[in-house]
């Protein structure tokens, strides 16, 4: 009896060990052999990992002088996957192959032209890629999506973009509007060495432009205004402090705007709204500097009009500067972290101003 009970337990243990977990997910690797139903040969593809954080694997080969084959492998997270080709590493102006398998099992792959950051500028069935007829497909296998297509080109663009969509959100007919991606990366691919690296175009110049303008127009100008309004009891320290802070802000801000002009020229990006706001802020800043040299004496009848102009222009400058910093973060696709960080700093400055305003009101 004891022996048969032990035998039964042993048999059940073997069965439990032999059954794979229900939620197991097979991963792809360059050592894996592809067994896909695609309309071109996949036996001699080069393979490399292109986006490790999302486990994206790219396989490609130059089949002939003007024919390239691509297979992008990515985890199936109930979202679209995309591979784009860009002349400058930016999404705007690029063309992308986007594929998804909807909840009813319908597989769809389309070319999109990313004409701008707004959804109505992301155009389906358009783009600069010459896709070979009947060569594109997307299939699901072992919990992974395989996006396959062929291009007629002598040399694909080396700046390659990858993105993954929001979970459970798919483009639908008739418009097939593409929702904003959940994450994306810009890379540089050497097709001959098979090496790929994440790369942000002109990253140093972009950082310089953003940090200089955020620090100057978006922070120092506000701090200088707070000093001028709430610390006049310490005369003339408040005046010199205000002048020094605003002068530093203006010089740094001018440098940041120059970086912006250079960046726009190099990226060939459409940032007309951001640029227009920046020029408007710069003009207000120049007027504020010139107003300092035309400042009437305290006993002059014109002093109250000068004060009204100086205060009003300063407040308008601060409001537009804050708005343009947030807009710049959006254009730079820096994500929620930068928005939250800058928003917290602005909230602290607003709170400090509110407290100082109450104290000044009570004192008066």
Automatic annotation (TrEMBL):
<keyword id="KW-0408">Iron</keyword>
<keyword id="KW-0249">Electron transport</keyword>
<feature type="transmembrane region" description="Helical">
    <location>
        <begin position="306"/>
        <end position="327"/>
    </location>
</feature>
<feature type="transmembrane region" description="Helical">
    <location>
        <begin position="339"/>
        <end position="358"/>
    </location>
</feature>
<feature type="transmembrane region" description="Helical">
    <location>
        <begin position="210"/>
        <end position="231"/>
    </location>
</feature>
<dbReference type="InterPro" id="IPR017214">
    <property type="entry name" value="UCP037471"/>
</dbReference>
<keyword id="KW-0812">Transmembrane</keyword>
<keyword id="KW-0813">Transport</keyword>
<feature type="domain" description="DOMON">
    <location>
        <begin position="54"/>
        <end position="165"/>
    </location>
</feature>
<dbReference type="GO" id="GO:0046872">
    <property type="term" value="F:metal ion binding"/>
</dbReference>
<keyword id="KW-0472">Membrane</keyword>
<feature type="signal peptide">
    <location>
        <begin position="1"/>
        <end position="24"/>
    </location>
</feature>
<keyword id="KW-1133">Transmembrane helix</keyword>
<dbReference type="Pfam" id="PF03188">
    <property type="entry name" value="Cytochrom_B561"/>
</dbReference>
<feature type="binding site" description="axial binding residue">
    <location>
        <position position="209"/>
    </location>
    <ligand>
        <name>heme b</name>
    </ligand>
</feature>
<feature type="binding site" description="axial binding residue">
    <location>
        <position position="274"/>
    </location>
    <ligand>
        <name>heme b</name>
    </ligand>
</feature>
<feature type="transmembrane region" description="Helical">
    <location>
        <begin position="275"/>
        <end position="294"/>
    </location>
</feature>
<dbReference type="InterPro" id="IPR045266">
    <property type="entry name" value="DOH_DOMON"/>
</dbReference>
<keyword id="KW-0732">Signal</keyword>
<dbReference type="InterPro" id="IPR005018">
    <property type="entry name" value="DOMON_domain"/>
</dbReference>
<dbReference type="GO" id="GO:0016020">
    <property type="term" value="C:membrane"/>
</dbReference>
<feature type="binding site" description="axial binding residue">
    <location>
        <position position="310"/>
    </location>
    <ligand>
        <name>heme b</name>
    </ligand>
</feature>
<keyword id="KW-0479">Metal-binding</keyword>
<dbReference type="Pfam" id="PF03351">
    <property type="entry name" value="DOMON"/>
</dbReference>
<dbReference type="InterPro" id="IPR006593">
    <property type="entry name" value="Cyt_b561/ferric_Rdtase_TM"/>
</dbReference>
<feature type="binding site" description="axial binding residue">
    <location>
        <position position="242"/>
    </location>
    <ligand>
        <name>heme b</name>
    </ligand>
</feature>
<feature type="domain" description="Cytochrome b561">
    <location>
        <begin position="172"/>
        <end position="364"/>
    </location>
</feature>
<feature type="transmembrane region" description="Helical">
    <location>
        <begin position="243"/>
        <end position="263"/>
    </location>
</feature>
<protein>
    <submittedName>
        <fullName>Cytochrome b561 and DOMON domain-containing protein At3g07570</fullName>
    </submittedName>
</protein>
């Amino acid at each position: 009896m004891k022996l048969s009970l032990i035998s039964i337990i042993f048999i059940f243990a073997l069965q439990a060990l032999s059954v794979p977990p229900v939620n197991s997910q097979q991963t792809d690797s360059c050592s894996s052999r592809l067994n896909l139903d695609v309309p071109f040969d996949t036996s001699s593809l080069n393979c490399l990992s292109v986006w490790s954080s999302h486990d994206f694997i790219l396989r490609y080969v130059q089949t002939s002088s003007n024919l390239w084959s691509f297979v992008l492998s990515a985890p199936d997270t109930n979202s679209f996957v995309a591979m784009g080709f860009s002349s400058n590493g930016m999404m705007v102006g690029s063309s992308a192959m986007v594929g998804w398998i909807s909840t009813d099992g319908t597989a769809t792959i389309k070319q999109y032209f990313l004409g701008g950051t707004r959804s109505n500028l992301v155009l389906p069935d358009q783009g600069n890629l010459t896709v070979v007829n009947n060569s594109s497909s997307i299939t699901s296998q072992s919990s992974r999506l395989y996006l396959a297509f062929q291009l007629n080109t002598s040399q694909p663009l080396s700046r390659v973009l990858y993105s993954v969509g929001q979970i459970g959100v798919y483009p639908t007919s008739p418009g097939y509007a593409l929702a904003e991606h959940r994450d994306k990366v810009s890379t540089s691919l050497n097709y001959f060495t098979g090496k790929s690296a994440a790369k942000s175009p002109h990253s140093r110049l972009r950082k310089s432009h953003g940090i200089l303008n955020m620090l100057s127009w978006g922070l120092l100008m506000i701090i200088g205004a707070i000093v001028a309004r709430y610390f006049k009891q310490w005369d003339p320290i408040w005046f010199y402090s205000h002048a020094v802070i605003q002068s530093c802000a203006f010089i740094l801000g001018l440098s940041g705007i120059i970086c912006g002009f250079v960046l726009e020229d190099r990226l060939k990006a459409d940032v007309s709204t951001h640029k227009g706001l920046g020029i408007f802020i710069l003009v207000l800043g120049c007027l504020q500097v010139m107003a300092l040299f035309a400042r009437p004496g305290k006993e002059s009848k014109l002093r109250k009009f000068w004060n009204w102009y100086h205060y009003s222009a300063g407040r308008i400058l601060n409001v537009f500067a804050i708005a343009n910093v947030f807009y710049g973060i959006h254009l730079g696709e820096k994500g929620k972290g930068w928005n939250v960080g800058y928003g917290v700093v602005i909230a602290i400055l607003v709170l400090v101003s509110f407290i100082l305003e109450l104290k000044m009101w009570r004192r008066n």
